[in-house]
Amino acid sequence: MQKPKRIMTDPDTGKEVKMPKITKGLIRANINNGPALYNLGTYEVQQGNFLDGEKVLSKAWEVEKNPETLLNLSTCYKFNGSSAKAAKALAECIRRWPNFALAYNNLGLINYDNNQFDAAVNNYRTAIKITPDYADAHWNLGLALGLDYFSPSQLFNASIQDFMTEYSWRFKKTNPVALAGTLGTPEWDGSPLGDRKLIILCEQGFGDMIQFMRYAYQFPVANVILHVPEALVPVVKSEYTITHVSTFPHDVWIAMCNLLKYVPVGPGVPYIRIPQYEKLLSNSKPNIGIVWKGSAKHANDKQRSLHYRDFLWLLKYGNVYSLQKDEVTKNAKDILPTKLGTWFDTARYINSMDLVVSVDTSVAHLVGAMGKPVITLIPSNGIDWRWGRYGESTVWYDSMRLCRSRDMVRCEEMVNDFLNNGNKFSN
Length: 427
Description:
- There is one protein chain.
- The protein is α/β, with parallel strands linked by helices.
- Helix content is 37%, strand content 9%.
- The protein has three domains: 151 residues, Serine Threonine Protein Phosphatase 5, Tetratricopeptide repeat (Alpha Horseshoe); 64 residues; 134 residues, Glycogen Phosphorylase B (Rossmann fold).
- It has a five-stranded parallel β-sheet with strand order 6-5-7-8-9, sandwiched between helices.
């Protein structure tokens, strides 16, 4: 949801008021002071106090009808657990103010979270029609189109060009994706490189970097410079030039995910290989690695992450190891520990696993990129664009199967299928 920007300012100094003392004073003087109620409610929303925000903004809406109040009130409803009330408030906002682009965008976000993808696309498009340079709506439309394009058989008529056109707005949205500064060199336009050096700039999270690293390897080694964070260097092909600084001598540049404009997705064959120096784990029983949590900072973490107890049923199938970095598992007595300090450590343990079962996080991408078997648990709502609307296979990784809705009954069927088929997925 797009959060409000307007907040109370001191009428004497014009400076932003950190604590809404003036606002509360105005409300005490007049309980029906609509602007003061709005500003106090907006302040509570900005502080993440959505219950208090809902109470104040509800009163503000009673006193004075304006689109910003209803928009912010819908945000409170959503974060207080009622997407239905949020959608109803936004629909009312659109009915009263049919040219309010933010309301369409926010309603599209609720549609998307509730798997109403066609409605989401329509609302994003309407927001863009009203405000053509509305970067957040373009970005959100890109995510919805990506979800369509990467669905099996591409039944939804999305094109890679449409997806990438909208996805490219990520650098202009409210919370823009960061790149490595202004380079002073041209962005690569897909033309033949010849003798030119192309620097490929990492972006977004580790999962995105691991997923899109495949495209760099489709260029001649002599033409490519990989700009990656130091943490990922151990899993990057050593024959490529690697740098941590964007100022490394080059002729043209491109953001890593934008390579999808010019290079086909291609088969999901392994492209990260880690030598197995010694056997880290026993092979007396199947070794199964688990990852139950992603980054708590992820916008959809509540839908993605689980608890280690949700995986204990795997104990009857083999040795179960934690691939959860920096996660204390001392209370999970039956979950075997691993020593994970770096991505290289994680990759070495993955090499020793027969199977990994993971929530949708960067480790799942690493397992898939290494060509090792992995079952990725996809949340019921807020599905990431790259996994498509439905289906259990993915174009990104041949060795990955998707378990929709984090359905552990279906997951167990997949595990049984894998182990009973000679440690291979049957389809």
